C-alpha cells in the first residue's frame, strides 16, 4: 500500500482509495452518493474513536449581512433538531462518557465527538442529525447571541488573544481572512436569524460534507451509518453528484510569496489600549499558504528562531536579558496566503527594546542562516513532536479532515519525517530572507495611549 494517499481530485461517487500507515493503521477514503466524502484511519488495538463532520466553510466565506453566521452555527447546531432537543444531544454523549464539541475556522468548520468504539454509531447519528436537521430556533438563537457576546468579551479581556487577532487584521487588511472568526460584537448583534438560516442552507450540503474518523472504526460500517443518517435528515443523495473541490488559490493578500496579489501588504503599526501590567507585541507579515512546499522548511525555521527553550528568541530575549516570560514565533497558512509573526509579552517600558531584538534575530537568521547543530536539533524537535502529536485518535481524525480539505494528500508519519529531514540549512536561510523582505506590521496591546 502507498505511504502517501493522493487526494488531488475530488473523486467520483463510489471511488475508494486505501493506504497503509505506520503501526499497521489503514486509511480508506470513499465518495458516497451525494458527493459525501468519508475518510477513516483504523488503528489496531484502539477501543475508542473520534468522529468528525467537516464542512468546507469558514468565516472568510460569509457574505455581507452574514458576518458571524459561521460561528453562530457552531453554537446553534447543538441547540436541537427535529428529533432531538439540546438536552437530548448533551445526554447522548454524557451517558456513554463521550465528549462532543465543535470548532470554527477561517476556511472550515468541524463538529466532532470522541467515544468508545461501540458508541460510534450513536455519535454518527447525533452529529449527522445536527448537521442535516438543525432547527435554528429563533428563541435559542437569541439566547445564544448573548452567549457568543460573552465569549467575545472574554476573548477581548485576554490581551494575548487581542494582539493575535489584531495582527491578522493588520496583515490581511481588506481581505475576508482578516476578519475575526467569531465575528465582532456589532456583527453578532446585527445578524438576523434569516441570515444565519440562509448561510446554513447555502453551505451545509452533501457535496461539501467530509466525515472523518480514526481509532477503533470500521470503514464500511461507517459509510453505511453516514448514508442512513443523511437520508433520515432529508438530504437528497444524488448518485451522480460529485464533491465540491478543494478551495482554489485565488488573488489574496501577501507580498507575492505564492504569486498572490499584494493586498494589505504595505505594513502597518497598530496600538490597542488595554489597562494591563504587561504589553503584548507582535512583529511580522505575510507568510506561506497551507499547501506551499516550503512549509516543512518553515517548520524548521520556526523551531530555530522561536520554537522552544533552546530557540534564539527564547535564549536572547528571556534567558540572557530577562525581558519576557513568553516569546516565540508562529505561522498559519490558508488557501491563498498566510501569516508569520514573532510574539513577546514584556513590560510596557521595554517594548521598543524587545521589538528591536525580535527584528535583529529575524534578520540575522536571514543573513547568516543557521548552524548544523541548530538544524539537527530542530529536526529532532519537530520529528518527536510530530510522532507524539499523533498518538491519539482526535489528532488523527483532524489530520484526515485537513488532508481532504486543505492539502490534497495524506502523508504517513514516515513520509512527513522524511520531508522534515530533507530540509537543509540553505533552505532555511533562503526562506528566512524571503520572509524578512516582506513589509512588516507591528501590533502593540497594553497601557499605551489610544
Can you summarize this structure?
This protein is an alpha+beta fold. It is built from 15 helices and 14 strands. The strands form 3 sheets. A 7-stranded mixed sheet has the order 2-3-4-8-5-7-6, sandwiched between helices. A 5-stranded mixed sheet has the order 9-14-10-12-11, sandwiched between helices.
Structure report:
- The chain is an alpha+beta fold and about 450 residues long.
- It folds into 2 domains: about 10-230, Cytochrome Bc1 Complex, Chain A, domain 1, CATH 3.30.830; about 270-445, Cytochrome Bc1 Complex, Chain A, domain 1 (2-Layer Sandwich).
- The chain contains 15 helices and 14 strands.
- The chain has helices spanning about 70-75, 85-95, 120-135, 140-155, 160-170, 185-190, 195-205, 220-230, 295-305, 310-320, 350-370, 370-390, 395-405, 415-420, 425-435, and strands at about 5, 15-20, 25-30, 35-40, 50-55, 100-105, 110-115, 210-215, 270-275, 280-285, 325-335, 340-345, 410, 440-445.
- The protein has a 7-stranded mixed β-sheet, with helices on both faces. The protein has a 5-stranded mixed β-sheet with strand order 9-14-10-12-11, with helices on both faces. It has a two-stranded antiparallel sheet with strand order 1-13.
- Strand 6 and strand 7 form a beta hairpin.
- It is globular, with a radius of gyration of 23 Å.
- About 50% of the residues are buried.
- Residues about 250-255 and about 260-265 have low confidence and may be disordered.
Amino acid at each position: 500500500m502507498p505511504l502517501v494517499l493522493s487526494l488531488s481530485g475530488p473523486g467520483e461517487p463510489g471511488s475508494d482509495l486505501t493506504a497503509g500507515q505506520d503501526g499497521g493503521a489503514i486509511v480508506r477514503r470513499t465518495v458516497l452518493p451525494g458527493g459525501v466524502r468519508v475518510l477513516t484511519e483504523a488503528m489496531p488495538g484502539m477501543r475508542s474513536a473520534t468522529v468528525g463532520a467537516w464542512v468546507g466553510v469558514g468565516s472568510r466565506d460569509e457574505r455581507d449581512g452574514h458576518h458571524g453566521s459561521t460561528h453562530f452555527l457552531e453554537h446553534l447546531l447543538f441547540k436541537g433538531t427535529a428529533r432531538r432537543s439540546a438536552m437530548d444531544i448533551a445526554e447522548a454523549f454524557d451517558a456513554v462518557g463521550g465528549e462532543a464539541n465543535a470548532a470554527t475556522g477561517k476556511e472550515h468548520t468541524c463538529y466532532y465527538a470522541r467515544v468508545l468504539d461501540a458508541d460510534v454509531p450513536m455519535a454518527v447519528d447525533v452529529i449527522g442529525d445536527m448537521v442535516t436537521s438543525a432547527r435554528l430556533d429563533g428563541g435559542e438563537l437569541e439566547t445564544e447571541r448573548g452567549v457568543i457576546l460573552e465569549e467575545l468579551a472574554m476573548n477581548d479581556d485576554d490581551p494575548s488573544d487581542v494582539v493575535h487577532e489584531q495582527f491578522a487584521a493588520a496583515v490581511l487588511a481588506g481581505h475576508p481572512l482578516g476578519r475575526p472568526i467569531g465575528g465582532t460584537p456589532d456583527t453578532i448583534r446585527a445578524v438576523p436569524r434569516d441570515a444565519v438560516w440562509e448561510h446554513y442552507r447555502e453551505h451545509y450540503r452533501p457535496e461539501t460534507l467530509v466525515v472523518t474518523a480514526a481509532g477503533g472504526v470500521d470503514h464500511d460500517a461507517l459509510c453505511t451509518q453516514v448514508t442512513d443518517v443523511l437520508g433520515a435528515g432529508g438530504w437528497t443523495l444524488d448518485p451522480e453528484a460529485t464533491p465540491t473541490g478543494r478551495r482554489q488559490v485565488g488573488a489574496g493578500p501577501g507580498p507575492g510569496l505564492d504569486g498572490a496579489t499584494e493586498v494589505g501588504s504595505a505594513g502597518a503599526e497598530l496600538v490597542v489600549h488595554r489597562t494591563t501590567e504587561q504589553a503584548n507585541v507582535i512583529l511580522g507579515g505575510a507568510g506561506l499558504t497551507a499547501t506551499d512546499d516550503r512549509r516543512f522548511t518553515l517548520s524548521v525555521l520556526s523551531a530555530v528562531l522561536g520554537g522552544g527553550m533552546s530557540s534564539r528568541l527564547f535564549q536572547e530575549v528571556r534567558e540572557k536579558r530577562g525581558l519576557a516570560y513568553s516569546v516565540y514565533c508562529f505561522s498559519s497558512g490558508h488557501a491563498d496566503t498566510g501569516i508569520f509573526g514573532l510574539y513577546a509579552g514584556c513590560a510596557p517600558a521595554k517594548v521598543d527594546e524587545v521589538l528591536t531584538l525580535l527584528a535583529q534575530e529575524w534578520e540575522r537568521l536571514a543573513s547568516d542562516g543557521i548552524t548544523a547543530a541548530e538544524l539537527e536539533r530542530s529536526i529532532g524537535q519537530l520529528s518527536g513532536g510530530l510522532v507524539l502529536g499523533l498518538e491519539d485518535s482526535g489528532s488523527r481524525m483532524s489530520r484526515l479532515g485537513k488532508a481532504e480539505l486543505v492539502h490534497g494528500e495524506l502523508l504517513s508519519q514516515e513520509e512527513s519525517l522524511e520531508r522534515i529531514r530533507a530540509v537543509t540549512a540553505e533552505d532555511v536561510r533562503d526562506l528566512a530572507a524571503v520572509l524578512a523582505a516582506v513589509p512588516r506590521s507591528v501590533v502593540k496591546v497594553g497601557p499605551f495611549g489610544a
